[in-house]
Amino acid sequence: MASSTSTTSNAVIPKKYSREIVFLATLLLLLVFVIFTAFAARMYHKKYHVLGDEWFARGEQDFHSGNAAAALSDYRNALLYSPGNTNFQFHLAKALAANGRNDEARAYLVTLLSDSPGSGETNLELARIAAHGGPKMMPDALRYYHAAIYGVWDTDPIAMRWQVRNEFCEYLLDNNAMNQAEAEIIALADNTNPEDFGGQKTAANLLLRARMWSRALQEFQTLLSHDPHDEDGLAGAATAAFQLGQYPEAEEYLQRLPREKLADPELARMHEVSRSVLSLNPFEPGLSTDEKAKRTAKAIVLAEARATACERQNGGTPSPRVPASSLTSALATSNQNAADWTERNLRKYPERIDPAMSSVFEMEDAAAGLCGEPQGSDYALWLITRSRAGNSK
Amino acid sequence: MSLTSLPPLPPDTQPEPIPQSSRPSIRSLWATCRSWSSRILSLREDQLFMFLAVLIGIFSGLAVVCFRIAIEWVHLVTLGSSMSPPVPRVLVVPVVGGLIVALLVIYAFPAARGSGVNQTKAAVYISNGYIPFNTVTGKFVICALGIGTGQSLGPEDPSLQIGAGIASLLGRRLNLSQEKVRLIAPVGAAAGLAAAFNAPISSVIFVIEEVIGTWSAGVLGAIVLAAVSAVITMRIFMGSESLFRVPPVRVANAGELLAYVVLGVIGGGASLAFLKWLAYARPRIQKWPNWTRYCQPAAAGLVIGFIGIRFPQVMGAGYSVIDQALHGQFSWKLLLVLAALKIFATGISFLSGTPGGMFAPTLFIGAMLGGAVGSFEHHFFPSLTGTVGTYALVGMGVFFAGFLRTPITSVFMVIELTGSYTAILPIMTANLVAYFISRTYQKVPLFDLLARQDGFVLPSIEEQREQVPLTVEVAMKTDSSVVALPDELAADLARRTEEQKDALILVRMNPGQWLLLDRDELRRLAADGAMTTKAAEAKPRGPLPILFRDQSLEDALHAVGDWPAVPVVSRADLSELEGVVTLADILRAFRNASPE
User: Fold this and answer.
1) Residue A101: closest C-alpha in chain B
2) Is A15 on the interface with B (CB under 8 A)?
3) Cα–Cα distance list, A387 to A286, A321, A382, B522 (Å)
4) Alpha carbons B29 and A187: distance in angstroms, whole number
5) What is the complex's ipTM, to 2 decimals?
6) What 3-state class would DSSP assign to A233?
7) Any CB–CB contact under 8 A between A41 and chain B?
8) Contact call for A7 and B172, based on CB within 8 A
9) Measured between CB atoms, does B84 come within 8 Å of chain A?
10) Would you state the pLDDT for residue B22?
11) B578 phi and psi, to 5 degrees?
């Protein structure tokens, strides 16, 4: 039996205590030790938890006050006390990205993504980092943006997906990826809540940026049906109508804009051009024959002057785009018919208005090709030309 | 008297006289406890040993939990909660900590020096398993102070010694036999290490590989039980999370093993350089004047403080930094710098005499080196599929194998930490490369080297492991015997062996049963006038033992005893004689095998 065996030479055994008492004392000591350790461990975890939260709160404060470097250090400290906390890791990654340390941020986010591959916010941050990486990283950006759009969002997933798609559209437009942008913008517009006027306006502006004039006009018109005085809506609708060659509509929207809004150079230019177009165009509906003849005669004079100036400026040097002969022949045609296309004859023979205007369009087109985009009234005539050409096609 | 035998209280008894009723209850409770205690203590000693192993595991687990909390508490109080403490603190705290550590080691706990592994081995092999409890207290306090104030050392080896000390105390107090007290220290060591590492398998293997050296069935069960109970205890209080989060491990094709071989070469080279430095510097520092011992830990602390201003990651055990490296959050240049600085910082911390472990720094350096090699290889060979984290993980095992020279532990440790066998091939390949490089150029492993420098010779487990056992085959002679059949006439046999005067005569009786025939006995049998006596009629001295050619010479020594010779037979056919072996042959074989 164990009790009868010898002990170690170095050990000092207190003979007065029996083994039973030692054993029971050991168990009692164990109980005390368990209680003490439980208390110490509880305090330890509590302290760690508090420290983690404190550092995280400090990080949030620094991050939102624009001090990303301090936030980075704070988030790192927070993670020291809660290494597995994915929220802390995510914010650290954001701080790293804000500090331009994209590789480190990506490493954190990829780790987070491996834990929850469908996370919308992780994919969005990865997409943003890829978007900053230039054209080389574009495939990654597209992949992560798509994953973010179709990913899981804890709070308000519909709004979050809409915002991510909006950001994605901006990214695509900034990078001239028009084909992909068009599809995403249409999807964005379709997914916009009809009651969300801000969202509608954003979608319509994106449609404008993507040169989807018709759809943009439609969006702006919807917007204006709710608020006819919305300045952004009026400006957008005017731009879309102008680009579509719908100058009367454009002018109407522009006129509804307050004067200070029209101080915007682009809107002012559109306003001027629209008015010019409307005052020069003989094909405006509702015009009397006299007015049509008068406008046509004026157009012929303007076009001939522009053609002559262009021919003189060019010195007969042929352009690679437009041979000088086309301008010369257009001018010659006009000169040959000068007697027939007087204001009086046009009034008398309104059927001559069309060929006369065709000659005007030929001259303006040839001059634009040879001498560049015209200015002022010539620009208005050129726009009428293009608009007519578009309509005839 | 037991609780159940107490008479029930009458229903109208008022609860007022509590002292009267509680007195017999306490007495009976005490009696029951003593009775249970006696029952447990009256178990056979090996059964009691198993029970104690569980108890030791729980005690060690609790002690290690408190130890970890103490380290963190000291760190928070002294260096603060920030990862990058303010410069004055970084400079002052390790120096002051070092001064206190030096005073405690010199005046209060001189036995608490060192990492703890050799001290536990010394307790097993020199002091019959005796570890004074004062050492446990000292180890706890000093290591918590040293590591907590930023010395570049780890808590695992001290935990191992704390566990061993607790086990030793329990064994002594419960009057276990001397043999069991000697064996109980490694049981506690495994428990302490398992709780510190949160990895029971590696801890059991380490204790067997480094402390005990043999797979003894008598102690293996107790070691496993203690390790498991320690880890369970630790997990109850500290959670089941690993010391660091393990990244997804990926190894796509076997061709990538070449990249891990490179890691093995670099890790082996680095561990060798670290070993050589310690081997060179330690005896020289030990010769410094005695008064320098008061300021060595403080001086080390000052140097570490200076490093810590720019690279605070180097201070302390560095688990959180390992975690970051495993997740590829450092550039390869920073990883290399951290590996080099950690080697330097750990070296000076250890050489300064600050008690503390080498496990955590080893893992740190390995992770940094692995991460650096992985990042570098990825940069130049983007087709490699293994993540940087995988390289860092393998790197930990590589440096462990090369520096601590426990190859099996190093493999199991990484597997246990990852919980996956995915990286088994890279781990085994790289670890063995590092191990062989280290062993080739540094013959004596770290722990043996430190023991020899301290003036005592502990059994070298590595040498034992690599010793080729001498077998009977080396000693046996194949042409010095004559085999006779049992029905051969003694006269014929005597004539046949007349020419071979030195030959031993063995009579093949039944399979496995042989008879060694003495020449005088043969002559006596042959002298029979009728010439009809057979060889089998010789009087045997007793059952002649047999040996097989693959048995060890130690077995042969036991078997030969007083016999002039023993037959060596085939395992496939016990009646086929392969040779004979004598005591002289065995001694000659031992003599030939000795290095002199």
Assistant:
1) B329
2) no
3) 18, 21, 8, 135
4) 78
5) 0.79
6) helix
7) yes
8) yes
9) yes
10) 55
11) -100, -20
